[in-house]
Amino acid sequence: MEHPSSLAGRPKRGYVRAMKVKDADILFVPDHGGAGPLHWQSRWQPRLSTARRAQPGNRFDPRAEAWVGSVAEAVNAATRPVILVGHSLGVAAITAAADTFRQPVAGAFLVAPPDPEGEDAPGWLAPFGAYPTDPLTFPSLLVASRNDPLCSFTVAEDLASAWGSLLIDAGQAGRIDAADGYGPWPEGSMAFATFVSRL
Q1: Any domain includes 141
Q2: How many domains does the chain divide into?
Q3: Most CB contacts within 10 A, which of 8, 64, 144, 179?
Q4: What is the pLDDT of residues 68-83, one digit of tens each?
Q5: Which residues pair with 27 in a beta bridge?
Q6: Is residue 7 in some structural domain?
Q7: What would the DSSP string read from start to end of 7-76?
Q8: Residue 1 forms part of a structural domain
């Protein structure tokens, strides 16, 4: 994985200080099936004082309207700028909800987006539709694997380019979940901390 010191480029002109976790509401948006206790999202959340999780209804039977609505509701109820942390289906829900955000979103940390138009796309992904192709209105970082069974690296590169996201190549990392050995995921934690500090 790329060293986190290179993740967000140079500070913007007028830069005053780094954002800290306490300055934002950290919103985790999990994958289909949720994030179990060994998943990196579940390990990170208790260590972040302002973190909470979007509750998208039935996590094993994802309905696009409910998942997208839960993300929009959580963002719009925030009292501080929001930093979104999405994994897999969570990325689809975040990008689908982005146009409905009424509260400021400071940034989004997006991991392993599934390709809804891929040959191996699961049935539960299709109702979320194709990804938006317009740039996101907030800074974003996309972490992608080169052997992700649900999204080719080429598609991930195209998404990052369309969204204006910084792309991190995670190498041969599968779905970047606990089943693929990404439970604690210290490299991801470092990348996230650096991303937040540059917002």
Answers
A1: yes
A2: 1
A3: 144
A4: 999 999 999 999 999 9
A5: 52, 84
A6: no
A7: SS-SPPTT------GGGSEEEEE--TT---TTSHHHHHGGGSTTEEE---S-TTS--HHHHHHHHHHHHH
A8: no
